[in-house]
Amino acid sequence: MRIVIQRVKQALVEVDGAITGQIGVGLLVFVGIGKDDECKDADLLVDKLAKLRIFNDEAGKMNLDVQQVGGALLIVSQFTLYGSISKGRRPSFDEAAGPEKAQALYDYFVQTARLQGLKVETGMFRASMQVKLINDGPVTILSDSKSLLKNGD
Description:
Blueprint: E1 2-15, E2 18-23, E3 26-32, H1 39-51, E4 55-56, E5 62-64, E6 72-77, H2 99-115, E7 120-122, E8 130-144, H3 145-150
Parallel strand pairs: 3-6, 6-7
Antiparallel strand pairs: 1-2, 1-3, 1-8, 4-5
Helix pairs in contact: 1-2
């Protein structure tokens, strides 16, 4: 499972002109599901998100997590995080999970975040979405559950 985390001042997702999810201060999280991913991958990444200290404290140091700043998550599915451009000019998505598995794990990811007490808004799975954001910093972080598991985290 791969995620792109962006610290935002605000973000929203629209589908066909209607807002499906909107947050103020918080984290915009793009989630890609790989064909070998399982619930443990989601558990690991949600735990990281909940405790990730990337918000500034009063001294300007990244010491606070999303809950400490009263923020929320906007979680958006993005299978293109598994796009490979190693061959040719057109991306290959062979490593991405199929739609049924991906939706089940995406839903699990969202539910797990909510169960951790995080405020969560979402996009719409498999929809053509327009994402609007004001990146704060900018701060953008990439993470991959397989790398974290390999490193024992």
